[in-house]
Amino acid sequence: MLHDPRIAAALADHYVNEGDTIEGLAERYQLSYRAVRTALLRAGVTLRPQKVRLPPTPPGMVNAYNDGRSIRQLAATHGMSYCQTRRVLLAEGVQLRPTGRQPTDWRGSDRISRY
């Protein structure tokens, strides 16, 4: 357990005012993640929500999606889950297509009629 109030105050200051992460503070102060988290909570700090970590965008994924590949196809090709693939595409700024089968020209107002 962390008993030095000066270290706890420093942890809280770095976390709240400087935006340091719990992992970074644990490494800096040679403490466990749990010890830092407990010290922050005892100091009355409201913890930030965890960020979802995304893997690096595989080369060609965005272009393949824009060329018509589905999120499911890309997920299978790159060994990722559907949700993870979708989040990667959104993080890259891709405008996702509507769900379901779409006419060939789904982007424009000149949609292809089936009749």
Question: Brief description of this entry?
Answer:
The protein has 115 residues and is an all-alpha fold. The chain has 6 helices and no strands.
Report on this model:
This protein has 115 residues and is an all-alpha fold. It has helices at 5-17, 22-29, 33-42, 61-66, 71-78, 82-91. Helix 2 (22-29) crosses helix 3 and helix 5 crosses helix 6 (82-91). The chain is elongated. The chain starts with a helix and ends in a 24-residue tail after the last helix.
Low-confidence stretches: 108-115
Taking the sheet with the most strands, its summary is: none
Termini Cα gap: 73 Å
User: What is the approximate shape?
Assistant: elongated
Structural class: mainly alpha
Strand % is under 5%
Number of strands: 0
Treating each run of at least 4 consecutive H or I residues as one helix, how many helices?
A: 6
Order of helices and strands: HHHHHH
Mean pLDDT score: 86
| CA-based gyration radius | 23 Å
Helix content: 40-55%
Key traits:
about 120 residues, mainly alpha, elongated
Q: What does the secondary structure layout of this molecule look like, with pairings?
A:
Blueprint (H helix, E strand, L loop, with lengths): L4 H13 L4 H8 L3 H10 L18 H6 L4 H8 L3 H10 L24
